[in-house]
Specification:
The chain is mainly β and 216 residues long. It has one domain. Helix content is 0%, strand content 43%. It has no helices and 14 strands. The protein is globular and about 45 Å long.
Length: 216
């Protein structure tokens, strides 16, 4: 495209090119940033074999007298078939009193001596503070911990601290202050209460009351 400019009468036209205007667009980086999912305390770790979300759920029932059972339900993603297995969980009680578990509770650990259950899978470490639904006072603490043993391998543990039983001689420790720390509500009356806590792919149901222990 050209413009003409007349110089004087009868003058010849002198052509002048128009400067080109160039526009450029810089592309934006639209790559998605993957979400960071932090598992809650008690969630089975991937190496436990429960890493497929929605296919396996672990339900753990326990009391404060040394009785616990874990029920695992698995759904086959191809056929939809459901299979269930159950396992009694060993505790650290000997003659009704808790004993130290190296690296977990008591001697050789940073956790006060208390009732501890050996879970069927490694789990995410962390605390669950349990508050009374009426008073709002801290009444229990569920502490999850996974340790590595050179002989037994990686093991998950559930530590139960409670104000209502003799299986917790150390009292309730202060819950850790972390993004992983969770809370739950204790329902019931003095001497008999129930706590329900749900983690990713795992549910925990606790009965606190020496007079009515679980029987399996």
């Amino acid at each position: 495209m050209f413009l003409r400019r007349m110089i004087g009468a009868g003058a010849t036209a002198r052509r002048r090119p128009v400067r080109a205007c160039k526009l450029e667009f810089e592309s934006l980086d639209t790559r998605a940033v993957p979400a960071i999912v932090i598992p809650t305390p008690g969630s089975p770790l991937l190496e436990s074999g429960l890493g497929t979300i929605g296919s396996t759920i672990s339900n753990v029932s326990f009391d404060t007298s040394g009785h616990a059972i874990a029920q695992t339900t698995t759904i086959n993603p191809l056929t939809g078939t459901t299979s269930t297995s159950a396992k009694l969980l060993a505790s650290n009680l000997v003659a009704g009193a808790p004993t130290a578990v190296t690296g977990v509770t008591g001697d050789g650990s940073t956790n006060p001596l208390t009732l501890a259950y050996h879970l069927p899978t490694p789990v995410q470490d962390g605390d669950v503070a349990v508050y009374n639904f009426q008073t709002g006072q801290l009444e229990k603490l569920l502490r999850f911990q996974t340790v590595s043993d050179p002989v037994a391998g990686t093991q998950g543990w559930l530590l139960v601290y409670s104000t209502n039983t003799t299986t917790d001689p150390s009292g309730i420790p202060t819950p850790t202050h972390s993004v992983l720390t969770q809370s739950a509500i204790d329902f019931g009356v003095p001497g008999y209460s129930i706590v329900e806590y749900g983690a990713e792919q795992a549910n925990y149901s606790g009965l606190d009351g020496n007079a009515v222990p679980f029987t399996f």
